[in-house]
Amino acid sequence: MQINMSVAAPEALTTLNRLVSLLRGRRYAVTRITFENKAGVAHIAIVLDEDRVRAEKAAACIERLECVFSVRVDSVATTAAPSA
Description:
Elements: E1 2-10, H1 13-25, E2 30-38, E3 41-49, H2 52-64, E4 70-77
Antiparallel strand pairs: 1-3, 1-4, 2-3
């Protein structure tokens, strides 16, 4: 199951570094990270290949970072099983 998350944080390399360190340290299965700057605010989109409970825990951990403004779990998309 793929979970899409949106994170808003100040535009800084340290913010991205802390976020990636958190995700790697807790061994979340990250499928994709995109980074976009708008008016001094970094908008980071993260796609996790995790179940809903682990994604909610990831969002809670990210939200605890002092450099993060907001975290939102956008949607859940199930991955289709390959057909035989």
